[in-house]
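Amino acid chain
________________
===
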Amino acid sequence: MLKRLLLSLIGILCIGNALYAQEKPYLGAEIRSTETFLYGKFEVRMKTTEASGLIYGFFTFYDEPDFLTKWNEVDIEILGRYSNEIQFNSITGNHSMHEKRQVLPFNPHEDFHLYSFSWTPYYISWSVDSIEIYRQTGDFIKTMNRPQKLMMNVWPCSSIAWAGKIDAAKIPLQAEYDFVNFYSYEANRMDSFQLKWTDNFDYFDTDRWQKATHTFDTNECTFEPDNAVIEAGYLKLRLTKPIDDEIEKTPAQLIQSAVCIRDSPKKYTMYTAVKINFYKPINRVLYNPDYFSISQGIIKHVYFDIDRNYVIIYVEGLNDGQIKGKIISYKPIGGEAERHAQELIIK
């Protein structure tokens, strides 16, 4: 899934970062777990909708800021363009792909089926209706060792070669999820996986799941929380067309505030933290640590919120009292992006 994101991002950066402000013609849906997992079996009973250009994902993903160089992801992807196919994938550091397309003996869009993958230190395997049909081993499995969140989504892809041309006439549409099971990996047991929890989607468990609000550059929708709903014991992730007043261009002024905060991870306690809040989630190519500077002190680290609602900047050389009143500058480089430049006083 995310290889399209990376290739698109590289392409945008190489052509000079042109046209950052963009409209998204659709509203999709994604949920992710609040918990991270290191190994386990992940199982879902789901049904999709047949429609060219659509991607339906059930996957785990390492979503820390350094994910580009330390990529860890395990995918089950159903493409709306195919009536008898599923895709499996594992992605390791620096976006090394290990993809498998698999023909199915049924149409995944016509009825519910059980899909799962098992992730261990020694192998990753995929099953359909409780029958293992593909397994990966090899040295790259050893690098699949980072905690990942469990995610589900529906989104339209701009890559015609991969997903096909988006069939707008089929939208609105949805994917339905009956239940999700998580089994922990128990290396010292003969039965390597133990059921830890089941979510039957009787209600939306905010302790277990978060609704996404971001987008990315090959994704032709913005994830909309209202498009992830529970109805009659099913989770439904919907793709819709926004009404005219919901389509907004990226505003010229991106940053809402710059505020000194005290809540810092242990490894950054020697620095002073400043949270930069955006008015709305911003395009990924505007989200660059090199675009930030401070009038005094040295920026040592920039943390990126996965939904791109904010960044946290860690500054050396100033304490909490000294940093207030200093100026944070945001100056993106290149063409249209430069209109978003701002300077804010740290509160």
